Amino acid sequence: TPYERLLPAPASARAEGPGYPVGAATVIRTGPAAGAEVRRVAELLAGQLRGTSGLPLPVDHGRAGDGIRLRIDARAGGLGEEGYRLDSGPRGVTLTARTPAGLFHAGQTLRQLLPVSGPGTVPGGRITDAPRFAYRGAMLDIARHFFTVDQAKRYVDQLAQYKVNTLHLHLTDDQGWRIAIDSWPRLAEYGGGTEVGGGPGGHWTKDRYRDLVAYAAERYVDVVPEIDMPGHVNAALASYPELNCDGKAPERYTGTKVGFSSLCVGKERTYEFVDDVLGELAALTPGRYLHIGGDEAHSTPAADYAAFMDRAQAVVARHGKTVVAWHQLASARPAPGAVLQYWGHDRTAAAEKAAVAAAAKAGHPLVLSPADRLYLDMKYDTATKQGLAWAGYVPVRRSYEWDPGSYLPDVPETAVLGVEAPLWTETIATRADLEFMAFPRVLSLAELGWSPAARDWGAYSGRLAAHAARLDAQGIAFHRAPDVPWEE
Ligand code: TNX
Known about the structure:
By secondary structure, the protein is an alpha/beta fold. Helices cover 32% and strands 18% of the residues. The chain folds into two domains: 2-129, Chitobiase, domain 2; 135-454, TIM Barrel, CATH 3.20.20.80. The strands form four sheets. It has an eight-stranded parallel beta barrel with strand order 10-11-14-15-16-17-18-19, surrounded by seven helices. A hairpin with a 2-residue loop joins strand 12 (172-173) and strand 13 (176-177). It is globular, with a radius of gyration of 23 Å. Ligand TNX binds at residues 258, 295-296, 326, 343, 375, 377, 388, 424, 426.
């Protein structure tokens, strides 16, 4: 049944009795008591369902009746902040949640219960569903190769339908600074003016950035911006001589090496820069997290690194936000509450894993992005043209068959805030390349983050295969990876 083909798999689903035929007379109903946000969720869902079904599907805020009904029930048990119930019978489909986010997720499930195109019947039964992890993220690196806000919006649409709720944006790196900062305008204007391979690059204005954040928020996706420091900063150093210890700006960089640049840790001007940049970024960010990078600072001595990260973390706190950083911060001094993003792999040294486990034990929530499982820029296999292979090949099966709750030694599931799939773009320059590398592996991330722990590759790969028609219908240039039994 379609209930068994849902992706990510729901916490529980039971098919029973006759279903509801969605047809020309179907109305989407919020009821008169619904607030503005529920009405907006209903309109968004209506637009999505009209697009695939070709039906009029008017939204009605009046009295109760047959149709697709959206209901907030603050007392509904077991659903949490994002969960929902879906009940389908001959008179209609009722979506129930404690929050508008829950209703949004219910609507995305409903889309998958209807045909890829044209009208159809939602099978009878009940789904009760809620996520395993609170943080289910994807990262896009717009620094190595520039991507537009429209491309990021398209990715948000693709991800939100699978209940991914976080978009982490890697906004700055050696090859480009992509976000306008009013107090340091040359960062974007000059530092954003190239990319890997020497192309023209580009940057996002604050208005375009706000537009993306609002677009994502309507789809219950939280944007986490990253300014990577104290390494990965050549674009900034090239834009402002005063940020360099010797006062001389280097050339802009269009290669793909890492670990060669560092902010000048001993200079007070550096911290004015950090404060200005993070302050402007905090003002653009409704969410609680600011990501400050902290990875691969190979040109920053360890003591300098720790001293710099102490100050950068204090700046984040002063601007009212919570730090996220790559897990290298575990070996320095993570501030209380700082979230660590683990990007190690099977061959990562035990001592490095132990430092992360110790930080988790001290109360730091972890976001897991194992490079040999969830790095979307790793090649699928030897035949993949794009991508890198430093962490090994990552076929779809490998991206799926592991358990975030028991992945790191001595880290209990309760310490895991969630999972994230980063897409680094040294070798990814177009929408087609992005989609080829992300899909279908980002769906493994979606299911690992949302669904209960039981993992069955056989069943999952079958569901994925059945899903190909939906990806095709959306024009997603996904990879027909050889380990999935695609139909036809
Ligand atoms: C490591 S992962 C990096 C990035 C590269 C990536 C390529 C991490 C925190 N740093 O700078 O783009 O590998 O896979």
